Amino acid sequence: PVKHLLVIDTNNLLICTDGFGAYITDLKTIKPLPKSEFLSVQDAKIYNDKLVLATNKGVWQYKKDPSNMYAIQRIFTRKDGLSSNLINSIALKDSTLFVGSDTGINTLNLHTKRLNSLLALYIAGVNFQNKTIQNNSTTYYKKNNSLQVQVASIDYSDTNDLVYVHEYGAGSNELKEFSNVDLSANTWYHIYITRNTATKFWSNSR
Fold first, then answer.
1. Which is it for the CA torsion 45, 21, 72, 108, positive or negative?
2. Strand order of the sheet with strand 87-93?
3. What's the first-to-final CA gap in the chain, in angstroms?
4. Half-sphere exposure (CA, 13 Å, Cβ side) for 182?
5. What does the pLDDT look like over 4-19, one tens digit per residue?
6. What global pTM score does this model have?
């Protein structure tokens, strides 16, 4: 079912559907709005070069790129202060978006930058030779053994596709990514674990 229609320029019309996303048409051809498939789009507004959608998964903001196509720029959800992700209608005044849902009315500033949801990255534990390494403790090198570094984070993001990057370096050598590596004795090693912009490192004892 078609839920809403919006004229987005002199040639194109936005079609908002219930469960099938949004489409742009010039009444001769039709193309889906990127990444909107399976969305229920209840309402839509134009703001400068941006297109804002009221959906069943929050407020979706698109921006027109240099090729004159719309690309997803940001998704506002309960993590950004909305009382519900199921949005029924939206109204726009200047850069303030009024958002209506079953739980009430919220306001969003479309110019607000999202804060980093990754608050901390830390080393939860380090095991060598199947023994836990304590702070300032001394460990001794042995061949054919393993080093295990347990990493944890305080993260309020709503995505599960983030990955950790593991790198190591000996002395002043260039860092290298690794999964399995042979470590030599009598050498300082530094292990760096990175996720997004957060980095934590652990240094061994000789």
1. positive
2. 87-93, 96-101, 104-109
3. 68
4. 3
5. 999 999 999 999 999 9
6. 0.60
